[in-house]
Amino acid sequence: MPRKKTYGLRLRTRGGTSVRKQWTRITQIKRRKHKCPRCASPSVKRDSVGVWDCRKCGYRFAGGAYVPSTRTGQASHRIRS
Questions:
Q1: Which of 2, 31, 34, 40 is the least buried, fewest Cβ under 10 Å from its Cβ?
Q2: Residues 6 or more apart from 56 whose CB is under 8 A from it?
Q3: Is 0.85 topped by the overall pTM?
Q4: Domains of the chain by range and CATH?
């Protein structure tokens, strides 16, 4: 039987199933490659909390803790333009 892929720290019985499912979902979203706002290449990865880096063009920008663009950030871009 193949083993399940684990994501770093294993949250054994602490917090219950809802906390573990939420943590797993956030970790998967955080670690996948996102689309670059400058070159549109799917090569943006998280550098640290809120700092995102495009591996292709070298563009570095601030975003959310787990995703490069948040709803609040999108709303502020709509207001400014």
A1: 2
A2: 36, 39, 41, 43
A3: no
A4: 33-80 (2.20.25.30)
